[in-house]
Here is the input.
Amino acid sequence: MTALLEAVDLFKHFPVRRGVFGKAHGAVRAVDGISFTIEKGKTLGVVGESGCGKTTTAKLVLGLEDPTGGALRFNGEDVASLDAAGRRRYRRGIQAVFQDPYASLNPRMRVGEIIMEPLITHERHDTPELKRRLERLLDLVGLPARAAALFPHEFSGGQRQRIAIARSLALSPSLVVLDEPVSALDVSIRAQILNLLRDLQAELGLAYLFIAHDLAAVAHMSHTIAVMYLGRVVELGDANTVATAARHPYTRALFAAALPSHPDEKREEIVLAGEVPSPLNPPAGCHFHPRCPSVMERCRGEEPKLRTGIRVACHLYE
Amino acid sequence: MAPLLELKNYSTHYVSARGTRVVKAVDTVSLVLNSGETLGIVGESGSGKTTLALSILRLLPMAARKTDGEILFEGEDLLKKSTEEMRQIRGKRIAMILQDPMASLNPLFTIGDQVSEPLRVHEGTPRRTAWQKATALLKAVRITAPETRVREYPHQMSGGMRQRIVGAMGIACEPRLLIADEPTTSLDLTIQAQYLALLRDLQREHGLALIFITHNLGIVAKMCDRVAVMYAGRLVEFGPVRKIFDQPRHPYTRALLQSIPRFADSRNRLTAIGGQPPDLSAPPLGCAFHPRCPDAIDRCRGEAPPETGTTNGHTVRCWVAGS
Ligand SMILES: Nc1ncnc2c1ncn2[C@@H]1O[C@H](COP(=O)(O)OP(=O)(O)OP(=O)(O)O)[C@@H](O)[C@H]1O
Ligand SMILES: Nc1ncnc2c1ncn2[C@@H]1O[C@H](COP(=O)(O)OP(=O)(O)OP(=O)(O)O)[C@@H](O)[C@H]1O
Ligand code: SF4
Ligand code: SF4
Ligand SMILES: [Mg+2]
Ligand SMILES: [Mg+2]
Here is the structure.
């Protein structure tokens, strides 16, 4: 079976210029050769520290940025070689929900218009059909029909995120990119939204690309997890294995740093030294080597690759 | 031994300029904290956590027109101190690390100037000595190459470094109590782990008491001895951390603990809390949690529950759990 979405050795380098018209000198290697697949109806979770390239990956998948290398395949077709109609299909098939429900909704539009906007731009429907669809979308995300006539400021954070989710579903996408969808919400509301996303996945067969800093939430939502460090995927695997039996030294440190859910829950203490280096000048060899507790001589010069089979990019596992 | 800090029926109400809008941001809160202990204050956005911290420091904004109750620090009521006395206490005896580290750092001054400032102000330390001490403090908060960092500016530091620098400013005069208002969007996990480990070490070395203000129950589980759970300006439950995690009594605390994802039971459905957090300018009558509470009885809709169970150090404000 072909995967819904496949990324093959994907790159996104941003040129760095002095001044607006200056010559490029160097590049931010935001995404630096990553490969993954997302299956129909399944969730790929992406974790990693700030600046490791998660949002850039999301933008590449959404077609909001063009890769500077590598390829994306959607339903087996190379996205770069799609014709105009194919590209439209691809754009409609992948929708997004972002972190901030306050910023992502136009304050001057009514909720009904906000949700229906993609449908009106992309499809032709008569008014009764639009009304029927709007009601179904509101119902799917647990909002009352009368919400359609109100403005975003009349809703709480959690409800606004429901509105953003309803909007993302208007064009019946097969993949929804969720970039930190609950981190701006109150703790007591997060479970509502996570449950809603899981219910929608079961009901509509949606696939998700789920990005979050909260590792327990990612483990809860995902079928597979990709761990990123400085633009590269360092470990990729079944969510449970990555969360409880990680192998890559960075993944182990990351999950060791996750906070306990009970005062008596003891986690391995791995306090990493130093800061995440800049993607402008990533360390040679294994990007993680200056902070790695298991670093060896070859790690300083030779880049470990994520191989099929053991999907851990680390010389310890070769 | 008398507690280091004790709040007795303390309230802060924000009143709008015309007096028409009243927000009971902190409402009759009582709690205790001993020397060297860590207290976690948890609650959703707007539940009054920052207001409570600012009240202890007497740094409330103008709109906080009405305060009531007592705040005893080392046995003395802070509300009765003069402005000058409070200035002496702030930074020296009680320090606070703000939610946003950039808010505490002046972009125009060097790191060294800013870390040595509390020393010069409170202890009259001469500039040279204060700078030397600042370098030592930066080292204590694990800033690498502190000798060069003291001459640099805030924009040259990463987020994690800024947080630690603000931490260094907080402990400069070796306060008895340090209040840390956690950023809502968390720091990177490995950086956060470094920071928490550092605060723990400082606490051990200097015997200081900590108050952690956070949304994150994980931080509470990891760091705290006692927990104060706030909801709509009220302290709904207060007790030792294990009691709160093992035998939570208030329905909100119970629901909150059940709603967080855990690694152990990964793919099970979460137990969500229904409804929305209350609007504090028009909170529900009676117990503010009643519209979302699965255990609510008639009485909860009309009458606010009192605080009960003070004997064993575990208190709760609930008609059902408290009886
Ligand atoms: N348009 C751009 N031009 C130049 N650099 C960029 C651009 N967008 C992102 N970057 C850089 O690329 C790197 C990856 O950024 P990205 O936003 O993908 O990180 P992230 O993993 O989503 O981080 P966070 O967890 O903080 O959201 C960062 O160093 C960022 O500064
Ligand atoms: N200067 C002010 N004037 C009027 N109302 C205020 C003022 N500052 C805060 N409030 C209100 O007081 C209540 C408590 O606010 P506070 O900042 O203490 O909450 P918090 O628990 O710290 O929230 P967060 O988790 O978002 O930081 C809120 O309803 C808020 O709107
Ligand atoms: S390749 Fe070397 S430096 Fe990189 S994670 Fe593995 S052991 Fe550590
Ligand atoms: S007082 Fe009533 S409504 Fe409030 S928490 Fe207790 S049972 Fe629930
Ligand atoms: Mg991002
Ligand atoms: Mg606050």
